[in-house]
Amino acid sequence: PDGRTRQNSPVGRAVAAASAHPTPRRCSENQRGRFLRAELWLDPRRGAAETAASPISEEAPVSQAVESLLTHYESGRLSRRELVALLSAAVVAPRTVAAQPSGLEAAKLNHASLIVSDLERSVAFYQRTFGLAVKSTQQGGVNLAVGDAFLGVYQGGPNAMPHINHICFGLRDFDPAVTVAALEAQGLPAESRTRDGVTQVYTADPDNLRVQLQDVSFCGGLGALGNECRA
Q1: Could you write out the DSSP letters of every residue in 56-71?
Q2: Among candidates 74, 84, 63, 66, which has minimal Cα distance to 17?
Q3: For 95, which DSSP code?
Q4: Which of 3, 67, 83, 165 is most exposed by smallest CB count within 10 Å?
Q5: Angle between helices 80-91 and 62-74 in degrees, nearest 10
Q6: CA–CA distance, 170 with 219 (Å, rounded to integer)
Q7: C-alpha angle with apex 81: 78 to 85, nearest 5 degrees?
Q8: Distance separating alpha carbons of residues 196 and 179, to the nearest angstrom
């Protein structure tokens, strides 16, 4: 696209507005790190010297960093969806840190999973005490319905201590690749694995507690989104 097309695009207008501000907002150290991680994600072959020499310095206006990602989009190296996810993760201002970046906004608490010492005993306890019906089953465990969410109960190994293994947030329009990219753009750990044909994404909080991210319809079942429940 030529310069006029870029200027008339929604992102182009946002860049122009940021540049025209009397005192353009500068990149903080954290923001610069996020942009550089986005650049490395786009081109893993970049060396340390190239990264250090990036035009996105701590004194660079945020609009200049946005311009860099926009160039990648226009050259076809980024899809529109990836551009939006990376921009949202990288440009978020400190005063809006409480807002979740695009691509990671949790729509619901999908489930929590327990590791137990005796699967049959624990399933019987939760069913008898709380009236939880079986929602789906997976190898080594049972998922018990709690409203439209569920509790995963899984058998631990011989020496495993019973514990809460992880919680899972349900995301709308879940896309594993975009979710992993958004996590990495924020400098967060991202683990992707396939189980029963379903791609699962995990990260961790500051205390290293595991957090799983799936589609809002995920039930521990089959299908691309894991939403084909099997009792």
Answers
A1: --TTSBHHHHHHHHHH
A2: 63
A3: G
A4: 3
A5: 170
A6: 10
A7: 95
A8: 20
Query: Where is average pLDDT lowest: 43-57, 58-72, 127-141, 146-160?
Result: 43-57
Q: What is the DSSP letter of 184?
A: H
Same domain, 116 and 83: no
Calculate the CA 122 to chain-centre distance.
31
Q: How confident is the model at residue 148 (pLDDT cuts 50, 70, 90)?
A: very high
pLDDT top residue among 32 and 185? 185
Same domain for 58 and 126: no
Could you tell me whether strands 134-138 and 141-146 are parallel, antiparallel, or unpaired per DSSP bridges?
A: antiparallel
Q: Are residues 74 and 142 in the same domain?
A: no
pTM over 0.70: no
Tell whether 202 and 121 lie within a shared domain: yes
User: Virtual CA dihedral for 127, 128, 131, 133, nearest 10 degrees?
Assistant: 30
Q: Tokens in use for 52?
A: 């250090």
Give the DSSP letter of residue 26: B
How many domains does one find in the chain? 2
Percent share of the chain, pLDDT over 70: 65
